[in-house]
Write a structure and sequence with these properties.
alpha/beta, 5 helices
Length: 140
């Protein structure tokens, strides 16, 4: 999260951080303008999705996967207004997307159209365009 917060901060934007209290983590980074800490992951995820208009996702681990699938599930089931989810790093995410197509779609656990909820790119300008195209009145 620090890289995203630092980029927003250095560009003069508002940098928001939603922290979860963990015994082995240091808390919010120095580039957060507005930070909120949560005790439980599920509360943090609820707030994360509630006020989001899209996700640009960088390579990450279990926490990243948890948040991506939470957002996709809520959009797929209509519990939130659909928003773009852009995965940065085509090579990094290719195995997961291939697995979703070859196993999860094949077994009927999601529809092939559900894969349309995800975009994958290495092009930052394209990621920004996808986000801005999804927002009425926003120019990229």
């Amino acid at each position: 999260m620090e890289a995203a917060n630092k980029g927003a901060y250095e560009a003069g934007g508002r940098s928001v951080g939603l922290d979860v209290e963990l015994p082995y983590e240091s808390g919010l980074n120095d580039f957060v303008n507005l930070g909120i800490s949560f005790r439980y992951f599920f509360v943090r995820k609820t707030m994360f999705v509630k006020y989001s208009q899209g996700f640009i996702v960088l390579p990450g681990g279990y926490g990243t996967l948890d948040e991506v699938f939470e957002a996709l599930t809520l959009a797929q089931t209509g519990k939130v207004t659909a928003f773009p989810v852009v995965l940065i790093g085509v090579d990094y995410w290719a195995g997961l997307i291939d697995w979703l197509r070859a196993r999860v779609v094949k077994h009927g656990n999601i529809a092939v159209e559900d894969l349309d909820l995800i975009a994958s790119t290495d092009d930052i300008d394209l990621a920004v365009k996808i986000m801005s195209d999804a927002q009425p009145g926003c120019a990229s």
